[in-house]
Amino acid sequence: MFNLANESTLYKLDELILHNCDRFDCGVEDLNDFFLNDAIAYEKDLMGKTYCWLDNSNDRKIIAMITLANAGIQTTHLPNNPKRHLHKAIAYNKQGRTYPAVLIGRLGVNTQYQGAQYRIGAQIMDFIKDWFISYDNKTGCRFILVDAVNNLHTTTYYERNGFRPLFMRESEEKAFYNIREDEELKTRMFYFDLLNY
């Protein structure tokens, strides 16, 4: 299996990397467009930072990219069911209206590094979990959040990596976001409690 920690190097994405590396393609055109055309501007506007892993054996190959941003889980307006699940994880004297989180805004793995022989997605999840519970983490961060594309492949990936849907039923999530019942729910919010890692 390809070992992301030993066989690649993590960098903050910049113009030089984009210029010097082969074109990144994760197989999803919207993600490719964001990473190649919008990620740098996104960081300049302080909306999130994008990181990439370069293959140590060929530093023109971007293995994967991820965009992270500060976030929080606001419990004030949540329905009772998800609110109870979150409060249950927090000590009673620490329960509040907002819990600190990091948001995975975008995540893409190069098509050349996809598949069971690489397991890049699972390794990235482990890296992020380790990163935000490590001593070097600059802020308190209890949860990892992701607004995942609502398809079986994506939601199964996050569930397999220990994430839980914030709303157990799609109807609850639609009601929360004022989406009509007959409309498609394009994304689903998932969370991971770092104290369970």
Task: Map the helices and strands.
Elements: H1 4-7, E1 8-12, H2 15-20, H3 29-44, E2 49-55, E3 58-74, H4 80-89, E4 98-109, H5 120-133, E5 143-149, H6 152-160, E6 164-165, H7 170-176, E7 187-193
Parallel strand pairs: 4-5
Antiparallel strand pairs: 1-2, 2-3, 3-4, 5-7, 6-7
Describe this structure in words.
With 197 residues, the chain is an alpha+beta fold. The chain has a single domain (4-196), classed as Aminopeptidase (3-Layer(aba) Sandwich). Helices cover 34% and strands 29% of the residues. The chain contains 7 helices and 7 strands; from the N terminus they run H-E-H-H-E-E-H-E-H-E-H-E-H-E. It has a 7-stranded mixed beta sheet, sandwiched between helices. 25% of the residues are buried. The model has no long low-confidence stretch (mean pLDDT 91).
The largest beta-sheet arranges its strands as 1-2-3-4-5-7-6
CATH superfamily: Gcn5-related N-acetyltransferase (GNAT)
> What structural class is derived from the secondary structure elements?
alpha+beta
| Count of separate DSSP helical elements | 7
What is the H/E string?
HEHHEEHEHEHEHE
Helix content bin:
25-40%
Total strand count, please? 7
- Terminal CA distance reads 23 Å
- CATH topology annotation: Aminopeptidase
What is the mean predicted local confidence, pLDDT? 91
Backbone shape: globular
What are its keywords?
globular; single chain; 197 residues; Aminopeptidase; seven-stranded mixed β-sheet; alpha+beta
